[in-house]
Design goal:
- The protein is of the alpha+beta class.
- It is built from 14 helices and eleven strands.
- Strands 6, 7, 8, 9 and 10 form a five-stranded antiparallel beta sheet that branches. Strands 1-2-4-3 form a four-stranded antiparallel beta sheet.
- It is extended, with a radius of gyration of 34 Å.
- It starts with a strand and ends in a 51-residue tail after the last helix.
Length: 509
């Protein structure tokens, strides 16, 4: 099937493709058969209408158009393969010549992957935060577990700091109830400051059945950000007693017999999680350096579509949470942008970086013929199910229904390529220490140094000396393995309450 390719720019190409009528004939025959099976013409049985009668009744042009539409995908795909270009979007098709009985010619203009030179991966660098063995997070996890196992008792006296009150709230403006401005049966710890400003002062000193009025700025609903008169009614006052952090507590929440063993296990979990975070940060940093050292242009339409898609997603996400961009920037501790213009500029920059990373990694995956094993796809399904709170079966069904398989397999291929790139790059922490990312396993444990492992494997085993026979000692119960999984999972550090993260993670993961 003859075809030619013309470069219209670094990211744009035009294919000119001819379809001889010999290749079109099977599609023409099928088009005639389909039409014959759908129409009723007096004197002819259904499905037996001759082609000449169909041409007379419906026109030869309609049949040709149906046949050409059926032949185009195969012809276009073959031309793309022959021309060795990589499409980055859907083509714009135009039939430029139609000579009945001879040839059909059409053109396809499309965005294509640009050519670019890659840097040496050994020259890539990334900087990450060091792994800290600070006990603060261990203390926070233990405190969270203490609160989970706290006991409460009803109290006849007035509420004070540390007490838990069950309250009803009702907000009004000019004597009229505020829409979505009431709540009942809320449990609140006095002094925590985690709800409406002024609530602590209002409930302190109140007994069950008493109420107080105060003015506060509403944090949600249609009147968010406006001041309202709030009435708080205390339904119940309770004292809260936290369990002591002793061996009995350790045995209750974990598999360990002592607090020291429990703390050591929690500390190890914190360090392992920090290593995983460090590995993810290293991948992000290295891919950012790779993109910065691989200059090329993106197709304008592709980049604009990506930016607009992210803007729409972020806007909808914030709207569902009752936030504007201005509100989000004011409350988020992680954002560096201070104005809406800066925020959207960062979104556009992230979109460009993400697209470039995808293109680079896809090219490398193609060149290295990186494949995807069934086990890798299964692992992704389990990971997505864990993140979304669904089941692997549901994720599989979602993938099939929405045809996500090519997209998710591309993610796996990129991740595998990126892993090999990061292993060649130089990663250091902010203290200047080199981080061996190849030693960090997915669960945060460290792999044994390869050299030591090989030496141990190659060293000849020392011939054991024959010990004199003796009476065996009484069997002692085995000590608990410090690395064994806990009966109850370690408490996870609670995230600070804030606006939902608006920025997408980079596509290359």
């Amino acid at each position: 099937m003859p075809s030619t390719v013309e470069k219209l720019g670094p990211t744009r190409a035009k294919l000119t493709i001819e379809i001889p009528f010999a290749d079109l004939k099977p599609h023409l025959d099928k088009a005639y058969a389909d039409i014959a099976g759908q129409v009723n013409i007096p004197g002819f049985r259904k499905g037996k209408v001759p082609a000449a009668i169909i041409d007379q009744r419906f026109g030869r042009g309609a049949v040709l158009q149906e046949a050409i539409n059926a032949a185009l995908p195969t012809a276009y795909s073959a031309a793309v393969t022959e021309s060795d270009i990589v499409p980055l979007g859907q083509p714009e098709i135009e039939v430029t010549k139609l000579e009945d009985g001879d040839v059909v010619e059409f053109t396809a203009e499309l965005d294509v992957r640009p050519d670019f030179d890659l840097p040496a991966f050994a020259e890539l660098v990334g900087e990450v935060a060091p792994v800290s063995e600070d006990q603060t997070e261990v203390d926070q996890r233990i405190e969270l577990m203490r609160q989970r196992f706290a006991t409460r008792e009803d109290k006849d006296g007035a509420a004070e700091d540390g007490d838990v009150v069950t309250i009803d709230l009702e907000a009004s403006q000019d004597g009229k109830p505020v829409l979505e401005g009431s709540a009942t049966g809320l449990a609140y710890k006095v002094g925590s400051g985690g709800m409406i400003e002024g609530l602590d002062a209002a409930v302190t000193g109140l007994k069950a059945g008493e109420k107080a009025d105060f003015t506060a700025e509403l944090l949600g609903g249609p009147a968010k950000g406006e001041n309202a008169d709030v009435t708080v009614t205390v339904e119940k006052v309770q004292t809260e007693t936290l369990p002591e952090v002793d061996d009995e507590f350790a045995q209750m929440i974990s598999e360990f017999d002592t607090v020291e063993e429990m703390r050591a296990d929690l500390a190890d979990a914190v360090v392992r999680m920090a290593r995983v975070d460090q590995l993810n940060a290293a991948r992000d940093a290295v891919v950012a350096d790779l993109v910065s050292k691989t200059p090329f242009d993106l197709p304008e339409a592709m980049l604009n579509a990506e930016i607009e898609g992210r803007k729409q997603q972020i806007t909808e996400q914030l709207a569902r949470a009752g936030y504007s961009v201005e509100d989000y920037l004011a409350e988020s501790e992680d954002e560096t942008a201070t104005t809406e213009e800066e925020f959207w500029a960062q979104v556009a920059e992230n979109a460009e970086t993400s697209l470039k990373a995808q293109i680079i990694l896809d090219r490398l995956a193609d060149e290295q013929e990186v494949g995807v094993e069934q086990a890798e796809l299964t692992e992704m399904l389990f990971r997505r199910a864990q993140q979304s709170g669904s089941s692997p079966e549901q994720e599989m069904q979602h993938m099939i229904e929405h045809n996500h398989a090519p997209e998710w397999m591309a993610e796996i291929r990129r991740s595998k390529v990126l892993g090999s790139i990061v292993s060649e790059a130089t990663v250091t922490d902010t203290d200047g220490n080199v981080v061996d990312v190849t030693a960090i396993r997915p669960d945060g444990t460290l792999a044994e140094p390869e050299a030591e492992t090989e030496e141990a494997a190659e060293a000849p085993a020392e011939k054991p000396k024959k010990a004199p026979a003796k009476k065996p000692a009484a069997k002692k119960p085995a000590a608990k393995d410090a690395d064994a999984p806990a009966k109850k999972p370690a408490a996870k550090k609670p995230a600070a309450k804030k606006a939902p993260a608006a920025k997408d993670a980079d596509a290359a993961e």
